[in-house]
Structure formats: structure tokens, C-alpha cells
Amino acid sequence: MVSVCFRLAFWQWQRAQEKQGLIEQIDASSGEYWWRKVSKPEQLQGATAQIRGRIDTSQFWFLDNQIVNGQVGYDLVVLFLPQDYTEYFVLNLGFIAGERDRKQLPDFDLPTNEVMIEVEFKIGDWAGFTLATSPNQSAHHSNVLQYLDHTFFVQNTGQQLSPLLMIAKNAVFDDVEPHYQAVVMSPDKHRAYALQWLLIGISAGVIAFFAYRPKKLGSSHYE
């Protein structure tokens, strides 16, 4: 128990240092390309940036079962190529309302010109909780997905894709509504958790010490 608590405290302290390093790196950088200078992609988790580039209008996907403000629909997902970049990113543009008939998909026009998008980065497990066994299980459309998966996009697009998922923070056209809210802890919160686990570990050690300490046998006198 003590060992586990100390390891958790150390892990939270490391996360605090990583987050603090990223914040300092962002503050020290200038221009819209600061995110390209980050040494480890995983450090961009939860970070935001203004990025200029083009949307690949030849293919797009709908992430199924989305509800925003009581309206049922999809998240519109595209490939995005930042300016002066050779690697595509999967980009979630946000919510788009669905039609009453599930066989009919929403109609829209993607921008063909270069756009500036504020994005938030996500790395790791793109899918979240799901009971689906594969992304494209729709009975009607091959581009309606149950969850997002990096391997799926690589295999189905033939493009070199970043492991980072981009999530739009501003709408690129009128019919789409960004709605993703990430839960990202600050360095101070990580430090607070590290201190909490450290104190729990120390408390567990103190309790164990007194519980297992040999007890002195007192002498008995009988008359």
C-alpha cells in the first residue's frame, strides 16, 4: 500500500513537471507554429493552437450518436493538412444535426479555401468508452462511425496521419457546432494530487508500523 501510494505521488509529480514544461515552452514560443517545436507529441494533450491549413474535401466521416442541446446528430470528421506540413491530421469539426431518416445524411459544403482553425489536441485513446467492435458498423453508410480510431483512418485513407487528434474550437462553416470540452488538469492540481498520495502513503506506513510493532509483555503478580 505504501509503495503504491509513493509511486502514484511520483507519477503525479512527473505529470506536473511535464505540464509546466509545456506551458513554459508555449510562453517562450511565438507565432502559430509553436506546436511543431514540442519535442514529445504527448505533451500537446489538451493544448490549443491557431493553425492555418486546408481541409481534404474528398472524404469525410460522421461520428454517430451525438446529442447537443437536445438535438440528435453526428460529429463531422475530416482530414486536415496544416500549411507547409506533409502529415495529415484527423480533425473533428464539431456537431452537425442529423435528419429524421437515418438513411439520409446531413448536407453541407466544406470550405475549399485555406482556413484558420483553433484546435485542441488529443492523443492516446481516441475512442473512449464504446461497445462497438469496429468503427464502421453502420447498416446504411460506410462513412458513419461508432468511434474514432487512428489505425482505421490510416488503413482507409492511405495517408500518413499524425497520432494527434485535432478537435476544432471554432466553427469553420455555419452548420457545424464545436462542442468538445476536455478535462485537463493544471500543474498545480497534479502537485496537489502528488502531495495527497504522499501523505496517504506516509499515513499507511505509520499505521502499519504501530500495528505490527512488537508489544512488550507486562509482568503479572498473583497473590
Automatic annotation (TrEMBL):
Key words of the record: Cell membrane, Membrane, Transmembrane, Transmembrane helix
Annotated Pfam families: SURF1
The keyword Cell membrane belongs to this UniProt entry's keyword annotation: yes
Positions of transmembrane segments: 193-212
Bilayer topology annotation: Multi-pass membrane protein
Localization terms from the record: Cell membrane
InterPro entries named among the record's database cross-references: Surf1/Shy1
GO annotation, cellular component aspect: plasma membrane
Coiled-coil region(s): none
Database matches in PROSITE patterns: SURF1 (PS50895)
This protein's record includes keyword ATP-binding: no
Family designation: Belongs to the SURF1 family.
Protein name (record): SURF1-like protein
Organism name: Pseudoalteromonas luteoviolacea DSM 6061
